[in-house]
Amino acid sequence: MKDVRHQARKLMEGFCRVCPVCDGRACAGEVPGMGGIGTGAAFRDNVLALAERRFNMRLIHDVVEPDTRVTILGVPLSIPVLAAPIGGVSFNMGGKISEEVYISEKLTGCKEKGIIGCTGDGAPDFIHQAGFQAISALNGHGIPFIKPWEDKELYEKLDAAARTGATVVGMDIDAAGLITLKLMGRPVSPKSPEKLREIISKTSMKFIVKGIMTPDQARIAVDAGADAIVVSNHGGRVLDHTPGVARVLPAIAAAVNRQVTVLADGGVRTGADILKMLALGADAVLIGRPFSIAVLGGMKEGVIRYINQLESELIQSMILTGTPAVTHVNPAILWATS
To answer: Average pLDDT per run of 10 along the chain, which is 338 residues long?
Structure first.
């Protein structure tokens, strides 16, 4: 991974510093780019909120080979991780490789390691086109995310997503107001509860709503028919000063009460972070920037190495907290101050 990160640092120069700790401090305001919007406070708090959580270490138990497998929305995963939908290589990552190569290598590495990658959307159109092509080439093994466009474009893309063979589709509603799209004359917008219900009803694929940050919004998504939600502030890239995902996740998970799959996306970097998110109420996590770095630095092999690292760290954390399976994570593994 040191070699992967070194190569990524060279290819992403001017767009991502590939810092030892990816916490948003050095890249505040760098949107387009890999930074967080404005002061970068939302990006930083994603990482800080997880870092503030501490484990209770327990070693008098019989957990020696913990089970890291989980099935999410009918998709079996070797570890509870999905590669988040990040695209726009040319304006976010330096453009030293093509969009097509980037997303193909990312999804292929994920498939070979038994997890699944998500594809992004945006402007120009080759972003979603490259994603759809990559999913089709892998016989539907990928999750396309579509931005909250106006009806004509939205429904056309939903139909195209279904033709890839994918069984799950997502809408990153947290992209509403994204600066990069405004700059390109392609604004996106929030959706009313009624409109969201209509959109979900238009597809037979399982539907993920990404960008939930409050319990009431989670309930609206559930009532609209979503199969899953992603607790996410879009990596701190759309609204400054939102709280870190780990701060709001427990209340949101409690609000949906296991009626839908709960995913969490924000600040996850290590296997220990994955376990923390599961203890806070997530069924699995999405990881964004580190996967982009892995692709730029090592292509498919970089992705595989990163997943190997996550798996090793997750297993170690599970053994040291006495966690037998990722499907049964006790919140008591986290240390409470009161």
So the answer is: 96 96 96 95 98 97 97 98 95 95 98 98 92 98 96 94 98 83 78 97 97 98 98 95 98 97 98 98 98 98 98 98 98 87
Question: 325: which 2 tokens?
Answer: 């399976």
CATH at 322: 3.20.20.70
pTM of structure: 0.96
Based on the structure, what is the number of domains in the chain?
Answer: 1
Look at residue 39 and tell me if it is in a domain.
no
**AA letter at 330:** N
* Within-domain flag for 46: no
By CB atoms closer than 10 A (0-12, 13-18, 19+), residue 208 is buried
Q: 217 lies in which domain range? A: 70-327
Residue 42 inside a domain? The answer is no
Residue 145 lies in a domain: yes
